[in-house]
Amino acid sequence: MENILDTAKTWLTDFFDPAVKKEVQQLIENDNDELKDRFYKNMEFGTGGMRGIMGVGTNRINKYTLGKSTQGLSNYLKKVHKGEDIKVVIAYDCRHNSDTLARTVAEVFSANGIKVFLFSALRTTPELSFAVRYLKCNAGIVLTASHNPPEYNGYKVYWSDGCQIVPPEDGEIVAAINALSFEEIKFKADESLIELIDTQVDEPFFKASVAHGNFNADGKDDFKIVFTSLHGTSITAIPEVLKRAGYKNVTVIEAQAKPDGDFPTVKSPNPEEPEALSMAIEKAEEIGADMVVGTDPDSDRLGVAVRNLEGEMEIVNGNQAMIMMTHFLLEQQKQKGFEGNEFVATTIVSTPMMEAMAKAYGVTFKTALTGFKWIGKMIKDYPQERFLGGGEESFGYMIGDFVRDKDAVTATLLACEIGAQAKANGSSFYKELIDCYVAYGFYKEHLISLTKKGMSGAEEIKQMLKDFKENPVNSVAGSKVKWIEDYNTSTAKNVLTGEEKAIDIPKSNVLIYETEDGTRIAARPSGTEPKVKFYISTNGKLDKAENFKKVSAELDAKIDRIKSELKLG
Questions:
Q1: pLDDT the model gives residue 75
Q2: At what angle do helices 318-336 and 429-440 cross, to 10 degrees?
Q3: Looking at domain 41-197, which of 3.30.110.170, 3.40.120.10, 3.40.1010.20, 2.60.40.1180 is its CATH number?
Q4: Model-level pTM?
Q5: For this UniProt entry, which residues form the secretion signal (predicted)?
Q6: Whose C-alpha in 188, 361, 414, 426 is 20 to 30 A from the C-alpha of 83?
Q7: Dmax over Cα atoms in the chain, in whole Å?
Q8: Is the pLDDT of residue 528 over 90?
Q9: Are 477 and 567 in contact (CB under 8 A)?
Q10: Of residues 146, 394, 508, 537, which has the active-site annotation?
Q11: DSSP 8-state code for residue 125
């Protein structure tokens, strides 16, 4: 506690605003627990950049923690691009303080002699990724906490390729930030270096989204869509992109259309949570819509609901949406003719069905750590290969390489293309998903996410993962564990034969058990929230579509058994 108190007292100097000093003093005098949580560590970069609760302290998002990160990034950019003109672009979402924090970040860059393009109003994360390359910038920043609760905000850093920072840049930037004291932040803006932007990037972004997501599907006039932006940024892009692609029957949920950092109509603005889409699904049932799409606040994730075999709206999970989008893109490429250099990609905790499908098409399949920055990195690492598309289980997808991050704008259009074409063919999105299960194997996944907040929660998560590793599982639902993949040591071991293989992926705190029947259990801490996540993947053979419900129920029962065995129920 003494070190925490010493750290807190450094925020009582005249460098900090009077209101900040007053709040810190009150915490020192009256609230040890809150003081500890705010100052026991510095904000860290995770899988999705820097994300946390807003407020005063080193473990909070505020003008000083973001200012320090921006100063460190400025120093690093000037070191890498010595003597060159440096440019950055900044976007922000609907969250409280996003606009003022974006302005602060712009001012720090400008104070360091760096040219800044600052969006004049909120924009989507995929547009920011696009803008980095379109404006030929050296870096980009988006102020967002993605799908986190209203008290959160965050700071994502993009490099010149439009992808979030990865090694070696990420470590070097963090080192540059950590080498600074708060007093070294330059807050005095050079207004001549800050340029407000809007439509000059919107137009080319919309055109590129339509070019990559529109496949001239039949049946657009007869396809009814309900769309909700969940109070976020996608209202600035998705309705326009759907309109330009020829969709006329689009109903926007007006009660959720206005950007609002309180997200007043939902418990969580996360399309992974079924409740988030409830208002849109209710509207879809009322008007007889074919599809519902909802996006998170910064518009990188999307949730999709379609009509199931009973004609009821059902949310497809991230793995299912990814399978359908990838299958569609592979079919489109097959019709054009494969050139032999195409690849698709996903993450190590997403469905193994992606690999099975890629093999069936004879297309290269690549896996990465969780986080789209690793998929984006593949595009840079394999310039001789062409990225068709890829996604992850957490409701994100990317089409082509014009955006180098999850892109709910273009993915929404692609989902609608799949649904419209299927309906025109006398089928449906859901029926074609079942056809994929028949063709490539029926894979079913389940995610268990446990929230553990604060300093004690971080220790609890650490211990849970330690126990999961040190007390290895021998069998899962009656099938012997065959492989243990430890991404911390970069080794995969066949526990039945003793064979060991190196894992050619950067180290990460992930452990995966795989059984003889292909069941997979993965465990990892979230890189963006105080959570530990367990991913269960099962599979079975579906010989014909008519047996879908029977096999689906069998896989559900198997998942329940696994949860019980691992005490994750």
A1: 98
A2: 80
A3: 3.40.120.10
A4: 0.95
A5: none
A6: 188
A7: 72
A8: no
A9: no
A10: 146
A11: H
